[in-house]
Structures are given as structure tokens and as C-alpha cells.
Amino acid sequence: MNDTTNILAVGVGGQGILLATDILAEVALAEGLDVKKSEIHGMAQRGGIVTSHVSFGRKVYSPLIRRGGAHLVLAFEEMEALRAFAFLNAGGKMIVNTQRIIPPVVSSGLAEYPSNIMSRLKATSRTIVDMDALKMAIELGNPRLVSTILLGGLSLFLNFDQKAWEEKIKEGVPRRTAALNVDAFREGRRLLNGYRIH
Amino acid sequence: MRRLLSGNEAFARGAYESGVRVTTAYPGTPSTEIAETISTEYPDIYVEWSTNEKVAFDVAFGASWAGARAIVAMKQYGVNVASDSLLRSPYIGVGGGFVIINSEDVGMFSSGSEQDYRYYGKLTLIPVLNPSDSQEAKDYVGVALQISEDYNTPVMLRSTTRLSHCKGVVQCHERVEKEPIGFPDDGRFRGIANPPALQRHYQLIERFHRLSSFAEHTELNRIEWGDKKVGIISSGFPYQYARMVMPSASFLKLGMIHPLPVRLIQDFASEVEMLVVVEELEPFLEEHIRSLGLNVVGKEIIPRVGELSIEILEESLSKVIPEIKSSNAKEIQGVSIDTKDLIPRTSTMCAGCPHRGAMYTLNKLDLIATGDIGCYAFGIHAPWSALDTVVCMGASIGNALGIENAQRTMIDKSMTLPVVAVIGDSTFIHAGIPELVNAVYNKGTITVLILDNSTTGTTGLQDHAGTGVTLVKEETKALDIERLCRAVGIERVNQVDSFDLELLEETLKEALLADELSVIISNRPCALLPQAEKHPAVLVDETCTGCKLCNALNCPSLMFDLTQTAVEGNEKKSWKAHIDPITCVGCSLCVQVCPVGAIRAPQ
Fold first, then answer.
1. Is the CB of B165 less than 8 angstroms away from the CB of A40?
2. Less packed terminus of chain A by CB within 10 Å, N or C?
3. pLDDT of B2-19, one tens digit each?
4. Residue B455 sits in a domain of what CATH number?
5. Is B29:B459 a contact under the CB 8 Å cutoff?
6. Alpha-carbon distance B596 to B591, whole Å?
7. Is B165 within 8 Å of A125 when comparing Cβ atoms?
8. Same-domain status, B204 and B246
9. B175 has pLDDT over 90
10. What pLDDT was estimated at residue B101?
11. Chain A CB contacts of B310 below 8 Å
């Protein structure tokens, strides 16, 4: 049980979080590991919070990561990064896509979007890595590439073969966007190259 | 072959491998993907979207009599709809194996109530199996079909949202065909009628005793010995959480939760110092175990509401096992961070949703609106507050008629209001049609607003009898809702464009005044469907006064900025609307609502 790696992905419905964690889970499976992946479908595509839990290792029991139990948090959105902070474990690392998705309660002027999120996160003793995946996705021609760019960043923190990643990305995304998504994945890796851990 | 499958995909795989020939379902969370996976991956199996769960049950049961292995899959609440057929089915018996997969929304992720369907096992004397991960979900389908055939009984497979949607590793095998023998020419009556029914009740109880002995020996139930200070009895996903929290304890893992293995439980209990039952929702296992005269720890510490998790279980169990918290607390080394200003994200209707105008209009008028099950149920929330009631599928029409009839008996008419029932197309076909016929038959003068968005929207765009396409994407006849309404005797039936607020309001006002039952069909397709019209985003010009009247539409594309202007030397703050150009699909509702004409379509 102690060899289990727990990865939490958080963001907002429509950002491609479930597709990204499906690919992550398939890579772990291809590496011969036991895997569990859990999230809740339902109303999420209508602007709600999406959280996806992926755990892999020799034998995985729980499909849910506890607070303080995540080795890595992949946050697709700033405020959701802040919300998910409590899930990081003591040596936990967080990759944050510096994108803000404004909830209706803010856009209608009834609340304010939290300020200084990145500096608050970085003031903690955790490793916080930011990526502007949206900017890069737009440069590559499609905002929907955010999720594979972030996977590229995530891949630097995991000991999986790059070929396995790219194969599972090709299988997981719509066929006509396969090459573009592989490019996006490589760009994501390049963007975070300085943080390489393994 | 190892594959990563959700519980629902694993159930579908299990059906495939076990030679199932017929599967039926009505779409709904959390079971939708069982039938969907079969429709896309396993063409050897006949699969259909039935109009509701009772119909689905009846079709699958018929297939079983003809010797085919058959499965009916149910969402949360579905088994309630099918219960009339369900409760008779064990009296009648099966042909080919017949399994009901029933997935509960424990935690209410997309439901309005929690319901513990394990009690249907007790009510029907039907055996119930409860898998605890995707591998078991797949394997138990085959086991359940075999039990069904061996004991001549329907079998229930219980899932939950967590199990249905969680993905896990599954070892897959090839399909083993089970050729149906056809409807037997044995002269045996398959149904409920006296006098044989009383005799069949005796047979049913006798069969239940045999199933109880089966439960004692089946590999579905197993003891995993560990430290004997604490013995945990659990089932389903709670077993996995308990395994994490108490890795060294002894476990009795139950795969078959009805009937329960009495001797196995007694033997397990006699070996451990403290017996704990870990289960979600009601004390279903616990009550039975207590009735055996055993001392157990259960719902006095473990919540009866919502999903369990490792954290909840840790907190609960630490009340009786003090070392738990300390052994796990070292993993949680919190760092303080200010999160007080986090804002919740609530789901709402999509930009371009055809229900939005209806909710806006209902809110504007003085009326009582009874709601139903679908995305339009978001209409209960502010700023619409458009719906006064939501119960279950189809209920809006009956509820409306009841309110009208009560008002008819009131002497002080100043306290009465016109009544509108609001129901979507898929829900109308599922359970609204008998309610509408009833309202016509009993001379109701209510208004029924059918929000026809040409799909089962909330569940994720499934086809239904009104769309002209089957689950396996074949063309079929499409139910014409307007002609159906006319055929049952309604003369005042109007179709309105969902995006024409003035027409919608006028038609609704006329219907409310009419002394006859009226149907209004709002007919734009769901904004998520490919055929939904998309126009360029609308624009807001500088004449916006910041009155925020458009905000009553509650559109996610509509935003407000606080702008500062200097007026005669004084700083003045005012709101200005703007439209998110990425998400706006140009439905034009805000253009129609703006009192100063500041919002318009681009030239």
C-alpha cells in the first residue's frame, strides 16, 4: 500500500480533466501497475468543479485520495488549485495552470474572485509549479489543448516512459487531433523542463 | 487482457463475456454507461433504451423466458418505477439468467434523495450481490446469471455512483455463448394468478432457504484473517475504505448481501474481540447481524448519510479504536494557507439553453409551477425561482391537477393561482403520458409546458422515443408529442420558439386564462446537440446603464464589470454588462430583455 502514488486533478467542467486523467490511468496500466481512477460525472459539464482521483501502485484499494494524501496535484485553474491545496501530502507537489475561470456569482458582481492565489500557494513550503498552458494552447491553435500540455508538465514528475504517454494520448484523443495533441504534450514537457525531478 | 474499466463498463463487459443476448435500460445517473457501452462495443447483444424502467424490466424478463440471458440496468430511483414487475418476478421464475443491475446515487451527486435499495432484496426474497470494484463488477454478472439459472430466480446486482464511475483494472476474457432454448412449450403458465400463487409463495420461501445455504459456502463471501482484536464486516466500496483504514484487522467481506450467511457471520464474530459493521446508508447488514444476538459497532459511530471515505471512516472508527488516528495522522502534515475567500461553483443551465427563457417567463408571471426531473430543475434556484415543486419523473402533471382541484373547492378565490406543470420531453415520455391522459379525462384546466429539447439532456444527450433514433443509432419512428396531445383530446396545443420571449409569455398568459387544458411545447433543441443553432456572440454597447435586468436570465456568458468614471470631479462606480464572446451562442434572450437596447447582435 505504501508504494501507491496518488494524483489529484482539479478544475472546472469542460477543461478536459477527465480525458487527461483517463490518459494518465492508461499509462499507469500499460506500465503494469494496479490503477484506480474516480470522479463524479453528472452536472460537471455545466460549470461545476471537477475533481479526478488517480492512484496507482502494486495494489490499490481506495478510489479516493484523502486530504493530505496526494503526491501530486494537477490544477487546471487557479482557484481550484487553492481549493485542492489541503489534499497535498508533506512532500507534495502542485502544478498550477495559471488560468482563471470566473464563476457566474463573480461575473454577476455578487462576489470577488480570490486574489494573490499564486503567491499564497508559493508562500507554503510545498513545491508549486506554474504553467500558462492556456497561452501555449492558443499559440498552438486550440484552447482545448490545455489538458495535454498539462500532462506534458505532469509527465516530468513521473517515472513513465515518454513513448507510453504519447501512445496513450494518440489512443485517447479524437484521431484527427492526435498529432497536434502529441505536439502539445511535448511543448508542455519543454515548458517545465527546468523542474525535472526524475 | 487487462483493461481499465469503470464499474459500468465492467458490468457491460460481464454481460458480453457471459453470453447475454438482451439488455434494456432507461438512461440516468449513475447507470447510463452500462447500456451505452454495450451499444458501442458489443454488437452481439441486443440493447435498447426503453421508455422507462418498468418497460425495460418487462422486455428483459420476456427475453429471459425465451431462454436468453438478459439484463436490465437501472439508475437511482429506477427500481421504484419497475417495482410492480420486480415484486412479482420471483414468483414466476426465469428462463435464461435474469439480472437486475441497480445503481444507487449514494452521496446524492445528481439526485435529490438517498435510497437504500438493498431492502428490495428483503421485500422480494431476491438474492442481492454487491461488488466492491470493477473486477468484481464484471465477474459478478456471470455469477449472478448462474445463480439466476440454478435457483430459477431474478438476481439483483447492486452498484453505487462510486463503483459505477470509478475505473479499475479488469482481467477480460472471451465471450461464451449461451444459445437461448426459446419460449418453452411446457404448458406452464408464466404469471401471477390464483390458485397457483399461494403455492408459489411456499416455493419462494423454500428457494430462499436454499439460497441461504448457498450464501454460507459461496466464494462471494470470504474471511480475510488478520489481527483478531477487530473484525470488520463490510461490502462494496466501503470494504476498500475499511481496508485502508484498518490494514491489519480481520475482515468478513460480503459479496452476497442477501440472504446473509448466518453461520459464517457467527463463526467470524466468535473469533474477534470487537465486531464492526462498515456500510453506507442504512444499517441493513447491522440490523440483521444484531438480530443474531451479536454485539456489533455500527451506525452509532458510522454516518447514515452520504458516501463514506477514508477520512470519515477514520474519524468514526477512532471513537472505538483510539490508535487509529495516531497511526495515520503522521501522513497529514498540514501547512496553513488562507482559503476563506474561496467561492463555490454552482452548475447552471448552459449558454443557449432552450429552458432559460421558460424559467425567466415563469418567474415573471403570477402562477404556481410544478416541476419535474431534468435540467430545468435548475429553475428552482435564484434568480429564476421559477419552479415551486419537484418530486419525481412525471409527477408535475398530477401535482398540478391536484393543486387545481384543491383550489376549485376554495371559497376565497383570491388565494388561488393558475397552475402550470413543467416537464421535459424524455421525462414526459417516461412517466408523463398517463398523467396527461388523467388530467384530460378528469377535466383539468391546467397548463402543461413541455420543454422539448429533443434529447435526454441531463443524463448526457441520450436518444428516446421522440428523437427518431435508437440506442444503436438506427433510424426509427419518432413520437410526435403534439399529435399525441391532440390524440388524447387536447385542443389547445401550441408550439413556441424557446428563444421568443414575447411569444412564450403571450401563449402562456392565454393558456392560463383558458377554461380548458392547454399544452405549450417549447421546441428548440438542447444547446449541446450538434443541430442547435449557433450565432455570433451578441455585443453590449456604451448605453448599458448597469441596471442588471438581464441578470434575471442567469446566463453564464453574461458578465458585469465595475467601472469607475469621473463625473464632475466625483469618482462614480457603475456596473457595465459584457458578453463572453467564447461561450455566447447568440440565443438573443438578453437582447430581448434589455430595456435600453444596449445589447444587440453584431451587424
1. yes
2. C
3. 999 999 999 999 999 999
4. 3.40.50.970
5. yes
6. 10
7. no
8. no
9. yes
10. 98
11. 62, 64, 66, 69
Q: And the C-alpha cell for B330? A: 503522521
Structural domain count of chain A = 1
Residues B68 and B170 in one domain: yes
Among A63, A104, A114, beta carbon nearest to B240:
A63
Q: Do B345 and A85 touch (CB under 8 A)?
A: no
- Count H helices and E strands in chain B, helices first: 21, 23
Does the residue B333 lie in any domain?
Answer: no
Contacting residues of B for A29, CB less than 8 Å apart: 2-4, 169
Q: Do β-strands B46-49 and B221-224 pair in parallel, antiparallel, or remain unpaired?
A: unpaired
Q: Which domain holds residue A96?
A: 5-195
- Tens-digit pLDDT profile for residues B18-65: 999 999 999 998 999 999 999 999 999 999 999 999 999 999 999 999
Q: Under an 8 A CB cutoff, do B331 and A102 touch? A: no
Tell me which of A23, A64, A124 to substitute to probe the interface with B (most B C-beta atoms closer than 10 Å): A64
pLDDT the model gives residue B333: 54
Give the confidence band of B329 by pLDDT, cuts at 50, 70, 90: very low
Q: Which of A2, A17, A66, A124 to mutate to test the interface with B (most CBs of B within 10 A)?
A: A66
Q: What is the rounded distance in angstroms from the CA atom of residue B245 to the CA atom of residue B238? A: 11
Give the mutation candidate from B241, B345, B574 for the A interface (greatest A CB count, under 10 A). Answer: B345
Three-state SS annotation for B206-232: HHHHHHHHHHHHCCCEEEECCEEEEEE
Residue B194, C-alpha cell as written in the block? 390464483
B455-464 per-position pLDDT tens digit: 999 898 999 9
